[in-house]
């Protein structure tokens, strides 16, 4: 079974990572949905993410998912808060019955360095470990992606609206962050894991 990691964050909150090795037919048998996605691999990622939701919470009403104008998948009934992320052959999801959550799975790639000036402010750049610069910046990017998904309303400036407090680079750890917009001023707590050039970052429900 390609469920490669599960984490019970709290009694009401679970996280999972799925390595996609199955065909689309497998997921269609398990999660009978018809996504309007033409690209075969993106459609496979979509199926894997939805299947992961019901793997974490078997009673999850996956057929009730709708997509908002900001492209965030939600349940109208708000019985579950959830977030899904895809990267290559991996899907990750976090589900909570308690509060809003966000997750991101990211591969370490040079493009992170090329765009780092767009999502890291001067104070954040000052704590980046020069011996692990690309990986440390990838963790920062992944954390901010998770925050963006937690917020869910779009129109976020990753450098101006999100600020990560200093944290030391290591393979796994915790991050404190501030999310500031006119409608929301919130301190968030995140956790991350680095493994096989993949970064997984997620918010803890408040």
Task: Output the CATH class name of the largest domain.
Answer: Alpha Beta
Task: Look at the structure and give the mean pLDDT.
Answer: 93
Question: Which structural class do the helices and strands define?
Answer: alpha+beta
CATH architecture of the largest domain: Alpha-Beta Complex
* Shape summary: globular
- Total of helices: 5
Number of beta strands: 11
| Terminal-residue CA separation | 32 Å
Strand content: 25-35%
CATH topology of the largest domain: the name is Ribosomal Protein L22, Chain A
| CATH H-level superfamily title of the largest domain | 4'-phosphopantetheinyl transferase domain
Number of domains: 2
Which strands sit side by side, in order, in the main sheet?
7-11-10-9-8
Return the string of H and E elements: EEHHEEEEEHHHEEEE
What summary fits the major beta sheet?
5 strands, antiparallel
Provide the low-confidence segments as ranges: none
> Helical percent range?
25-40%
C-alpha Rg (nearest Å) = 17 Å
Protein name: 4'-phosphopantetheinyl transferase superfamily protein
GO molecular function, one term: holo-[acyl-carrier-protein] synthase activity
Keywords: Transferase
Pfam family, one: ACPS
């Amino acid at each position: 079974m390609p469920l490669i990691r599960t984490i019970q964050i709290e009694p009401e909150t679970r996280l999972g990572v799925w390595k996609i090795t199955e065909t689309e037919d497998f997921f269609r048998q398990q999660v009978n949905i018809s996504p309007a996605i033409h690209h075969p691999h993106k459609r496979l990622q979509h199926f894997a993410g939805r299947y992961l939701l019901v793997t974490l919470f078997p009673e999850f009403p996956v057929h009730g998912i709708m997509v908002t104008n900001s492209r965030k998948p939600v349940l109208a009934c708000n019985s579950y808060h959830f977030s899904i992320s895809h990267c290559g052959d991996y899907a990750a999801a976090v589900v909570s019955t308690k509060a809003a959550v966000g997750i991101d799975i990211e591969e370490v790639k040079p493009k992170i360095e090329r765009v780092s000036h767009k999502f890291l402010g001067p104070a954040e750049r000052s704590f980046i470990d020069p011996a692990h610069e690309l990986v440390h910046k990838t963790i920062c990017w992944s954390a901010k992606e998770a925050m963006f998904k937690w917020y869910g309303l779009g129109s976020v400036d990753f450098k101006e609206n999100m600020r990560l407090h200093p944290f030391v680079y290591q393979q796994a750890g915790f991050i404190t962050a501030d999310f500031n917009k006119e409608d929301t001023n919130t301190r968030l707590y995140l956790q991350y894991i680095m493994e096989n050039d993949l970064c997984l970052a997620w918010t803890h429900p408040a």
